[in-house]
């Protein structure tokens, strides 16, 4: 039948370059973008604040004042070593963001490069890269971190590398898929006809056009990295004491579950807020940067 | 059909070999490393060398790899460096817990996700849809081990209905065992279900827009009948793909969750073995988990052919 | 009550449909009225977006939930507009059936064609599985599907486009409906198959004494297959009348434009195809006056003030134009063809 509702034909979903003009105008009216942005900023601000100021030192152990209930001095009380919970939460945001940023950078660097190469070369190169990324799926972050920890010992670096590796296949697949869509475009054909090489086309045409998709996915991957980091440091495979981290705090709190149940609530809530914020931000960005990608989610 | 399955089997084998090579290279690449680790930094060089020979770690890399693979075929995975008992039976003891845990959480995931996904798609943009979708947004953000701790706080500490951890075993019948796996499997399932519910919802909405849905309505089928008899089967393909991928996360999740609930499963075994530097156990456990993930995804691939009639002919 | 033989089967009065589109609310159909007796055939012609498919879907009660219907649709005197969906379900596929444009996507790829043809029989006639299957084989045989007893268990992807359209016709005919709506049934098919499918539909309509509403953008298809025709533009009927009469003396500049724009066989090489200048207006922002005003060669100020009224220009032949005196002087139609 004819399509009376819209004039647009069902075009394949192809990314667009970043729209700039009305972006902020629309962004500030987008509910999940604003909420996600506020939550994410809260976490970033906490981390930044902890660099210059925390109410108490997050490292100082004071057994005499352990497990204090919330008070004017310690807004959320103290843990079993007498450390101030608020200070630990603020400093914990730092580790979370540090691990997240480095791991996602690793994932983006390798994933985007591999994806672009697969898309530009096609043939066997593409086949090998894609098969490789297929079976990397069999190793979730926790599993590869366990392997690394088994040989290299646990630590922040181990967890960063493990999470970074775990991010690569997702980003490779995404990059390749969207880059292939760009390669099929007429203007790429025109560029090829005018004698431009695969490398130049990739830099000049493909990368700028898939940027918005990559930004959205990087936000989501950041959230996944935070979850993975929390799980690893909870297991003792990630960030090591005395460096504060939310996962580690949960591990400590679990032994005190019957005495001070609230100790187990705060760090988890912090993780959930960070992840929720980034996910909402990613959803919002997806709507704003490319409405055609949003569809029904 | 047979060609289709054959090709998938070959991919499956290649993937398993690839995974085993990576695991082997990561965990066993440095000869003597395992012995050194076992004995500690202050062990004498002679003692380390003696242990290296005893464990067969002086053999070339390729020989050791092939021995390991041969071990799979003949069913002898070697002995634990620490306990001295066969690795195979060590793992088997733990699977009695981990496999039921994985199955229970997968079941809960599927039931929760499908009902939420179908409900929200059928009530697209209505209040229920928005409400349930907001819940899943929160569910996705929860770290599963924190959710587990919250469940313990509520059901074990506050209400005291269930124990905070430990495994009752299967000796006294099924119920005590299931009961002790209840909180762990729920905490594993809820987060996964939140993701799968969103996938289900968008898959169902996608199919609802298809022409054949309108054809079915034109025949006089009601909205509900169309949903059940025409939409769901079509929507299951993407849902199953994600389910297969989620199985990997679920197994990885058992490692964490078993530690929250002090359950003596595979995850805990891996964890203890790392602490003990028992690399042979770690290697086989990791291989087992990776193999389970790969095989489940293989099964999903083959199931497509049963659900979607187009695949069979395509690959005949 | 009037004599059932002369009483119209379907009677549409001042039908209006407002849809929510991505560009805001749009009046997709305005003031459409017609009546169809048993055994009569009616053609709906127009470009995509003119409201012909929306009209068809409102007869089927298959508009999106957000659509607002005004006016009346009566089947054998029973009001259908705003009928609850459950009641509508017992009519659809039973007394009113529809054939869609895209045979490639109109069938569910997961079910056998037999299952899909049998579905209305099981739903409306409560046939047993075996009975419905026998009936489905007979139907598939009637629509000319080769070897139906064997092919009944095949899936849609194992058929060609033309065969699939035969299957959808069998589906639509399963419960011997009173009214068949065929929405561009041949548009997606190869030219060589189009004639066969149209002949099949015509044979079946005559054989079963059904009424039919045939929707097409192709004047040739309309000329050969229906007794009466309506030309739609911008959600309104701009011309309507007996097919022969309309083709003999086309009254509306739009109908004339459509007629001139069709490619002619045997035209001299190098003859330019006449086109209608401009584009179809968006339903979301239609002008106040004549919807065709922006593209009409005869447009005057009075055309832009209000929607022109229907003018009778011949026996049962009406045209929604205030300039028929000029437009019909040229006498576009059979004579100039």
UniProtKB/TrEMBL annotation, chain A:
GO terms for cellular component: plasma membrane. It is found in: Cell membrane. GO terms for biological process: transmembrane transport. Keywords: Cell membrane, Membrane, Transmembrane, Transmembrane helix, Transport. Gene3D superfamilies: MetI-like. The chain crosses the membrane at residues 33-53, 97-120, 132-151, 210-237, 257-282. Residues 93-282 form the ABC transmembrane type-1 domain. Pfam families: BPD_transp_1. The keyword Ribosomal protein does not apply. It is a multi-pass membrane protein. Belongs to the binding-protein-dependent transport system permease family. This is ABC transporter permease. It comes from Bradyrhizobium rifense.
TrEMBL record, chain B:
Belongs to the binding-protein-dependent transport system permease family. Keywords: Cell membrane, Membrane, Transmembrane, Transmembrane helix, Transport. It is a multi-pass membrane protein. Its main location: membrane. InterPro entries: BPD_transp_1_N, MetI-like, MetI-like_sf. Pfam families: BPD_transp_1, BPD_transp_1_N. This is ABC transporter permease. One of its GO terms (cellular component) is plasma membrane. It is found in: Cell membrane. It comes from the Bacteria. One of its GO terms (molecular function) is dipeptide transmembrane transporter activity. Residues 95-304 form the ABC transmembrane type-1 domain. The chain crosses the membrane at residues 95-119, 140-161, 237-261, 281-307.
